Amino acid sequence: MGSKTTTPASFSRIQSPRRRGARAAASVAITALALTACSSGGGNEPDPEASYSQDQLITALNSVEVDGQTLTAEAMDQESAGTQMDDIEQALEQATIEPSQCKDLVKAALDSSSGHVENIVVATPSGGKFAVSAMPLGSGDEATEHAKNANQQNEDCQDFTMELMGSKIEATIEPRDIEVDNGSEASIMDMTMDMGGQSNKMTQASAVVGNTFVVVSGQGASGESESASSETPDIEAILQESANKISEQ
Known about the structure:
Elements: H1 17-37, H2 54-62, E1 65-66, E2 69-70, E3 72-75, H3 78-94, E4 96-98, H4 101-114, E5 121-124, E6 130-136, H5 140-150, E7 159-164, E8 167-176, E9 184-195, E10 198-209, E11 212-218, H6 235-247
Antiparallel strand pairs: 1-2, 3-5, 4-7, 5-6, 6-11, 7-8, 8-9, 9-10, 10-11
Helix pairs in contact: 1-3, 1-4, 2-6, 3-4
């Protein structure tokens, strides 16, 4: 999900429209499949009854500071989000994904999120190396159920291939456990996507805070990853900071 979504900008920096379309669909596919492949962690017990509005989430994420830089949070643009979802769904219809059952998981993940697009808040830094999204649901129980469905184990889809628009993409997902204070159902995964000799790496972490499903994704790595450096954002730390700020509302 550019600046209005959680899809990292690096995944769309392809010159050819055909390759750009393939990369956009693949980036969402890898994100959706990663969410179904992660395992749950924990942290200090959050308040399961806490309920946050879109305005509160915007205020909270606007106060998140990363390396001395605050984020800019806003409600997801409805028109651009809808157009992107339509484009991705059309691309996936033309794609061949192996193992074949992974394609159904991609569609299910997209369908699950599409009904809540109007409530999603997205926050990004000026550098655009990562994005934070917060999706409020009807209750803490609903958010927890959403996260559990997303985090269900699916070993078959930790390694998959996609053929789309004449391009072949190979993806690998490495899920790990984490703990997030003020959050539950926490998970993190490192993802690698190879396409035409070009490799892209991404880290994504998520947790439930009250009634809200929070996701951080970007070109960085968690503090425990060997690939983490001073030049890449610590995705796990950003998720923790976001959970803290939201819980203060």
